Amino acid sequence: xxxxxxxxxxxxxxxxxxxxxxxxxxxxxxxxxxxxxxxxxxxxxxxxxxxxxxxxxxxxxxxxxxxxxxxxxxxxxxxxxxxxxxxxxxxxxxxxxxxxxxxxxxxxxxxxxxxxxxxxxxxxxxxxxxxxxxxxxxxxxxxxxxxxxxxxxxxxxxxxxxxxxxxxxxxxxxxxxxxxxxxxxxxxxxxxxxxxxxxxxxxxxxxxxxxxxxxxxxxxxxxxxxxxxxxxxxxxxxxxxxxxxxxxxxxxxxxxxxxxxxxxxxxxxxxxxxxxxxxxxxxxxxxxxxxxxxxxxxxxxxxxxxxxxxxxxxxxxxxxxxxxxxxxxxxxxxxxxxxxxxxxxxxxxxxxxxxxxxxxxxxxxxxxxxxxxxxxxxxxxxxxxxxxxxxxxxxxxxxxxxxxxxxxxxxxxxxxxxxxxxxxxxxxxxxxxxxxxxxxxxxx
Length: 444
What we know:
The chain is 14% helix and 32% strand. It has helices at residues 2-32, 50-54, 57-65, 89-100, 208-214; strands at residues 127-130, 135-137, 144-153, 158-166, 173-182, 195-197, 226-233, 240-241, 248-250, 253-263, 270-272, 275-280, 290-294, 306-307, 314-321, 326-334, 339-347, 353-359, 370-378, 383-390, 407-409, 417-418, 421-428.
């Protein structure tokens, strides 16, 4: 009788240990995998329960061992980030051990992430805004760019700590750059057209005034709309999310204007109805997040700067001096298909180096608004340096042209052009900003 009792107790201990181990795995998967791999999520591969992993375990083992998944291109030894998707060595080993054990179930009472409308955040959005009408991407097998207006009204000014772009048709939505704009009270935000389509000649040459007049966003005073936030969504990027202490002001009357909405080439007509999830803060903040975008100066004159065919190491630089202290929140490097590597850092007036981001192997399909673990202070007088290298040779498997051809640099947005951008999201510096954590899991 005693032997039976001991066996029962030992078996109970084993089950408890298995649940404990699997629950640990579930915590890792929730933060690094399931946010994209859920029903309706960014990835078409659904990985929500052990059975989903079990039937793909050899493939999952391969992509984890080779660092293909989770996608993360920044060098964590150069600078680590709050929104890092990459697995630590310990996390990787734990998942591989779990797969080797044939993906044992986790405890039935463990919490299940609740994702809404394709969100990557495990909470319900407070406001959902969508395009008014479905946009039909024409079957011309070429890049298509539009500018789209989404109006809204609230009872009062509100603060959000996260704004999330939700791609309606993941097969063709490539990227979106957007603004939250406040308008005068006398502006009828619902009048006029919802969008216009860029052509090749106007893609990089329209002005704010053109867009604001086209969408009837200028009031009787003649004042332009006021930008309260500027964000973007790119292939592979996560949600731009901040601690509750940092608010994004959502004015009570305004529009989200998608200034550059890019659809990939398609040989068949595709329909898209994209939108935004907005998550309100529980604190009010008077600090507005700033947006700055930098590009190289063109020494050859407009339209003359070329990346010559078969040049495997074309070099471009950005150098910018800051004239005030800033508090850096996010950094976003951007290139196209010829990109090879990208590094950014700042040199302070004292000669110290502030490492910002290093992408040793650029991948156009996986880009990110990298969020620092803590706010980084960039002192006034510092110089921001960014170095990018491009490969326009036949040895670049991502080169859109075979054989390679001369490519215009900083001209247009198609396969015959390249670009270099460095985007910063920041605040004007306040004392002790550098002590503020940007790891939202500790604040929400």
